Amino acid sequence: MSKNKEIARIFEKMADILEFLGDNPYRIATYRRVANILSELNVDVEELVKSGKIYNIPGIGQSSVEKILEYLKKGKISKYEELKAKVPEDLLELMDVPNIGPKTLRLAYEKLGIRSKDDFLRAVRSGMLATLPGFGEKKLQNIMRGIELWEKSKERMTLIEAFEIGQEYLDYMKHLENLIEKIELAGSLRRRKETVGDIDILVSAPRQNWVKIHEHFVSFNGVKDVLLKGETKSSVVLENARQVDLRTVEPHQWGAALQYFTGSKEHNIRVRDIAKAKGLKLSEYGVFKADTDQWIGGSSEEEVYALLGMQTPPPEIRENAGEIELALEGKLPKLVSFQDIKGDFHIHTNWSDGIGTLEEMIETAYRMGYEYVVVGDHSLSSRVAKGLDVERYRQQWKEIDRLQKEYSSKGFYILKGCEVDILPDGSLDLPDSVLAEFDFVVASIHTRFSQDNTYRILKAIENPYVNLIGHPTGKSYGSRQGYPLDMEKIIKLARDTGTALELNTFRADLSPEHVRMCMAEGVYIAIVTDAHAPAHLKYMHLGVGLARRGWALPELVLNTKDIKGVKEFVLKKRKLLAVV
DNA sequence: GCCGTTTTCGGCCCGACTGTTTTCAGTCG
Predict the structure, then answer these.
(1) Which entry of A208, A381, A397, A574 is 20 to 30 Å from A287 by CA?
(2) Which domain holds residue A119?
(3) What is the pLDDT of residue A1?
(4) Residue A32, pLDDT above cutoff 70
(5) Domain co-membership, A91 together with A147
(6) What residue ranges in A406-454 does DSSP mark as E strands?
(7) pLDDT tens for residues A439-469?
(8) Does residue A477 share a domain with residue A421?
(9) Closest residue to B11 by CA to C1' distance?
(10) Going by DSSP bridges, is the β-strand pair A195-196/A413-421 parallel, antiparallel, or unpaired?
(11) CA of A39 vs C1' of B11, distance in Å?
């Protein structure tokens, strides 16, 4: 865990304790804000301390800086140690449980002598909690349901899973076409966060339709539990323990509502600050004059931001990580978009561990509207993945040559590629003489995930035939953390050799921070689906979203090159390392 | 705890739903 995340976690915990103790809510909000800023920061906090820039970060004041310095010096924060002594830490884990908040825990602590998580769970089940004032049967039921939910869905969804569920729900809601004006997925899913907590759906419709819309929403086939149902807001839990929320607004409120429910929270707080400074008020219902409450706009997001004198930041970068300042100055960069994408660099067929045939995968890539695709089956040492030996690759090339004849007339190109294993000593699973025969080479690590693998990747980058490092960090979504890595070294060598780094849609690897580092250093990234079935190719737009979260520029995304540009990219490295 | 284009003190985003409450507190996003 990076120092940023470690310190962020401590600030988060301090906020929890302060909340439990009933401290000033604004101080608590500040601690949480500091935690959030630290974890979203794309610079190492130690760097900021060295350069003195830590003192210039809005939202991190003197007192927080002191705590950060203390942590960097002594490895702990005395204020945190002090607070920890005042409350059983394990009890506060329950703050994450839906329907349990600080007041409930505090009451149980004081009136029932509850000292731990298990104490609390026992008190719920034994009915002891029900003896507290204000705790009726329904409240108890909600708490029990919250605990059940919490235990089941501790893990957030991957972006792809959330998108699938959201899409299915959207299709279902569209049965009400005649009642609904607009409908869209909002929240962290719209921001294309790599993991999503729950799914937010926003609908605009005339008020008289709202009751019917919410009725329809909670009647979805996969619904296990209706958490709440109102005229503007409903919330359900699906059989798979995933939560979906619906909000309805009137058509003229659409933009303000979409802006609000897209978030992030940090972004919105800043935007509302800006509104206030202009004598305006921003809510999910529109932009208003602060003094008269007169509605002055909000039917589209563009209108909302324009009224605040800003460009509209793309949803993916609304994290209060610099986008607001640039939007105010009218200087937002143009990010890569799905329309820019001309090909996919990493797909598998049933020659190795894919389930689609070569023909199916290629046809699907062609139907995506691409100009080219790289077929990249595993090399031999990936035995579980049915890796190919040299002879099998040669057989596959014959097939590709045959198919290329068909597709040439359509202006579509199939590149002979491979995903060659980077072996434990950093050498590759195929000899250079064979690698030289491929059109495009992806090199990836598939073994020894717990050791520092920097040396293996550096060695692979030095190979003149390696064009792309596959899933460089070994991370998979939020779940598998990835091996320790000196990303700065890797990025510098990638820059100096003309090697690209892969943003893998299925694993959400690289992170947005890494993408920003690549952009700053002028290193190409390639957005790939790592498709193992024809249906996977369509997730490219989610990969593009992940790249946009890292402020990816089209000129440094390899997929924006046409076939000629890709061939030049490959040739350039071979020339640079003097092998042609 | 943070911050300053009416401020170095006095504010801090704002609204929905539920439950037990007869006017509001707790929780959530």
Answers:
(1) A208
(2) 3-152
(3) 53
(4) yes
(5) yes
(6) 413-421, 440-444
(7) 999 999 988 877 889 999 999 999 999 999 9
(8) yes
(9) A26
(10) unpaired
(11) 27
